[in-house]
Amino acid sequence: xxxxxxxxxxxxxxxxxxxxxxxxxxxxxxxxxxxxxxxxxxxxxxxxxxxxxxxxxxxxxxxxxxxxxxxxxxxxxxxxxxxxxxxxxxxxxxxxxxxxxxxxxxxxxxxxxxxxxxxxxxxxxxxxxxxxxxxxxxxxxxxxxxxxxxxxxxxxxxxxxxxxxxxxxxxxxxxxxxxxxxxxxxxxxxxxxxxxxxxxxxxxxxxxxxxxxxxxxxxxxxxxxxxxxxxxxxxxxxxxxxxxxxxxxxxxxxxxxxxxxxxxxxxxxxxxx
Length: 273
Known about the structure:
- By secondary structure, this protein is an alpha/beta fold.
- It folds into 2 domains: 8-164, NAD(P)-binding Rossmann-like Domain (Rossmann fold, 3-Layer(aba) Sandwich); 179-272, ProC C-terminal domain-like fold (Orthogonal Bundle).
- Helix content is 50%, strand content 14%.
- It has 11 helices and 8 strands.
- Strands 3-2-1-4-5-6-7-8 form an 8-stranded mixed β-sheet, sandwiched between helices.
- It is elongated.
């Protein structure tokens, strides 16, 4: 389905995540003439997209009078410095969509004032291959139409869910925002364990990566719950059952992941505070 906007989309920050979304929008048929990029130093590949698609790059902010969505994709550490520069965009009553971790709606309202329509989002890095998952939370000023528009834009790079309680985004960060790193660590640990079991390092790495990727794709395509998929490959008293006895021990994977997600959630709250 082709993306349709009631005005222009202003992308503030065209780094890895912003750039991934830009590619998704262009693939979904959004025209370069409908996009404005505000970024003093975009990566070379984004510069190529700007040139190839005729995207407006770094015009005077005061000259943009038809913004429908302002997507804030700069690093959280510089967000407070960037927000005052985009305040003039408010004159066309856009929705401000933030993908910055740890920056609360209240923080944005401090800079943009309480009448600004704001949608806070927590994506994750698989958005770079259009397999991300993003959770959104709008403030009361964001209309249903504006929230749906943000959802449609984010669906260009993966699935989207929504919550009404902004406080849940800290736990979302712990599960899906940081979650890809847990999977990458799993692949690292599997490869290292394979080497200890006697496999050559290159083969152990190949097996671990392919297994993690394949299992993820199987789970993506299958309607079955993860638990059922696990049971389907676990024969009684077999090799998989022996391994799962270790991973499912009281001090095993469930305990470690619970503690890890709690730690990430706690840290997200600290960053927001």
